[in-house]
Amino acid sequence: MTENATRDADTPAGCEVAEPRWRRVLLKLSGEAFAGGEPLGIDPDTVATIARQIADVSRTGIEIAIVVGGGNMFRGQKLAEGGVDRARADYMGMLATVVNCLALQDVLEREGVVTRVQTAIAMGQVAEPYLPLRAIRHLEKGRVVIFGAGLGAPFFSTDTTAAQRALEIKAQAVLKATKVDGVYDADPATNPHAVRFDTLVYGEVLARGLKVMDATAISLCMDNQLPIVVFDLLTEGNILRAVRGEKIGTLVGADEGGTEGRR
Asked: Which residue did the predictor score with more confidence, 4 or 41?
């Protein structure tokens, strides 16, 4: 089989073979996505769908690291609102992310993708400790690296973790995979007239309080000119399309003409 034939075989239907826009990316997955259509828990079919997309990206030679949330099990802020100490609640949420990491690792390994889980809280029986240089080395060897337990400190979201980890491993972009197909000026679930942005600048995201990532994460990306792509996760092939720079979702960056791309 020729090289081109191999690449075609690994390319999801509907995706043209093209040079990727970025060679190393950080994929942010929400915990809620792991639950599928359920309010809580892990849906095996949904995780398998996500893993297949990640495997397709990895097989093209793109280096991919992942930060996983834990909202399908615990949300520290919600627990704190119910009376749990906020710091303790956040640690519970961090442990929930590790459960999701292990679930994703299991499916990826069954897809034939070599993975490593690294956690910010030491748990040597199930994961490596988070070491940026080791993570980079894994990526260079073609392994997928999954980061769990957030930043290992309370009061920081997994969005902030994604931005921080992306900078530390020298990723070229943050891909935020969500349940919607981009960033809107209002909630599209409740406002049928909500308008989706094709592109945005960091400053407008902060000024308008748009639901992209939290302000700390946006500020980190803005200070370091790290682009963010927000897109629908469960459309087959979208992760690969995002890496290739195809026009899906919303691109957040430093282009001063960014908001002119609004649809």
From this structure: 41
Q: 111-141: per-residue pLDDT in tens?
A: 999 999 999 999 999 999 999 999 999 999 9
- For 78, 97, 157, the CA distances from 215, given in Å and listed in that order, are 19, 21, 10
Q: What are φ and ψ of residue 114, in 5° steps?
A: -75, 130
Q: Do residues 57 and 10 make contact, with C-beta atoms less than 8 angstroms apart?
A: no
Q: What is the pLDDT of residue 248?
A: 92
pLDDT at 256 (0 to 100): 52
Tell me what pLDDT residue 214 has: 92
Q: Are strands 250-253 and 24-29 parallel, antiparallel or unpaired?
A: unpaired
Cβ(59)–Cβ(10) below 8 Å: yes
Q: How far from chain centre, in Å, is Cα 262? A: 23
Question: Tokens 């945005």, residue?
Answer: 200
Q: What is the model's pTM?
A: 0.87
Contacts of 165 (CB under 8 A, 6+ apart): 26, 65, 67, 135, 147, 171
189: Cβ contacts below 8 Å, ≥ 6 apart: 180
Report yes or no: 154 and 90 within 8 Å, Cβ to Cβ: yes
Tell me the sheet residues that pair with 77: none
Between the alpha carbon of residue 185 and those of residues 15, 135, 200, the distances in Å are 29, 36, 11
255 vs 236: CA distance, rounded Å: 29
Question: What's CA 220's distance to the chain center, in Å?
Answer: 16
Q: Are 194 and 262 in contact (CB under 8 A)?
A: no
Average pLDDT of 224-242?
A: 94
Mean pLDDT of 253-263: 53
